[in-house]
Amino acid sequence: QVQLVESGGGSVQAGGSLRLSCAVSGYTDRPYCMGWFRQAPGEAREGVARIINSELTYYVDSVKGRFTISQDNAKNTLSLQMNSLKPEDTAMYYCAAATYCTGNVKDSEGFLDWGQGTQVTVSS
Fold it and tell me: In terms of Cα–Cα distance, which of 51, 60, 63, 56 is closest to 98?
């Protein structure tokens, strides 16, 4: 049974940092593409970052230079290091996996497996 379990969310002040983790299990073959998405109350879900074939990384413009996505295949873990957090980063963050995806961070096509989410709250 495929499972994606996020952790690491919390409440921080603007300028602070958080590191999100996603424990991945149940796959026979490692997903070709993994990503982080977020959804704020009343807003549409937004792609934040993705990693393709464990090496190619893509970010939405609003987080470039602040967030870093990484994948540890030995530990079956996907991470998102978030620095210089801003109040507008407040959202529920989800990790997701796909057997295929493009480099377009805004495109969620192909992401069939999702975690339950972890809340990130940034206060000003």
Answer: 51
